[in-house]
């Protein structure tokens, strides 16, 4: 699976962005997908994950109620709708895929990674 993240940019506090992750390969509909982020000087951290059907999701506490993860298997694409953005959401956002049916929240549990897209929230 090859992943390409896009949709990042500069947005003001309280604004919204939608990230996309386009996947290649016929196995997209059978893999767990996730979003992670990495701020300067910090380790990569979990943001959200979604199972193969979209029926199960999990979010980091810091984004619950503000971010929504979704996927369109017909388009081989995953999304992250980010609302009410805060300064602390500034980071490079990465999409990832996992070759199992169980959602996961650790970096080490994912097998494939996209190149990342920068999200900058300004005041």
Keyword list:
single chain; seven-stranded mixed β-sheet; four-stranded antiparallel β-sheet
Give a quick precis of the structure.
0% of the residues lie in helices and 50% in strands. The protein has 123 residues and is an all-beta fold.
N/C terminus separation? 37 Å
Order of helices and strands: EEEEEEEEEEE
Helix content: under 10%
What general form does the structure show? globular
Number of DSSP helical runs: 0
Largest sheet: 7 strands, mixed
**Structural class based on helices, strands and sheet pairing:** mainly beta
Nearest-integer average pLDDT: 95
Poorly predicted spans: none
Share of β-strand residues: over 45%
Radius of gyration: 13 Å
In total, the number of strands is 11
Write the layout of secondary structure elements.
Layout: E1 2-6, E2 9-12, E3 17-24, E4 32-38, E5 45-50, E6 57-59, E7 67-72, E8 77-82, E9 91-98, E10 112-113, E11 117-122
Parallel strand pairs: 2-11
Antiparallel strand pairs: 1-3, 3-8, 4-5, 4-9, 5-6, 7-8, 9-10, 9-11
Care to describe what's here?
This protein is an all-beta fold and 123 residues long. Helices cover 0% and strands 50% of the residues. It has no helices and 11 strands. The strands form 2 sheets. Strands 2, 4, 5, 6, 9, 10 and 11 form a 7-stranded mixed sheet that branches. Strands 1-3-8-7 form a 4-stranded antiparallel sheet, with no helix packed on it. A hairpin with a 4-residue loop joins strand 7 and strand 8. The radius of gyration is 13 Å and the shape is globular.
């Amino acid at each position: 699976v090859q992943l390409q993240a896009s949709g990042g940019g500069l947005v003001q506090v309280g604004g919204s962005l939608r990230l996309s992750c386009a996947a290649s390969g016929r196995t997209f509909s059978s893999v767990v997908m996730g979003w992670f982020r990495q701020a300067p000087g910090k380790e990569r951290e979990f943001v959200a994950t979604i199972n193969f059907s979209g029926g199960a999701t999990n979010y980091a506490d810091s984004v619950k109620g503000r971010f929504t993860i979704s996927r369109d298997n017909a388009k081989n694409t995953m999304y992250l709708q980010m609302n009410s953005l805060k300064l602390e959401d500034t980071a490079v956002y990465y999409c990832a895929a996992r070759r199992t049916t169980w959602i996961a929240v650790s970096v080490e549990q994912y097998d494939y990674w996209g190149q990342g897209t920068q999200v900058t929230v300004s005041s």
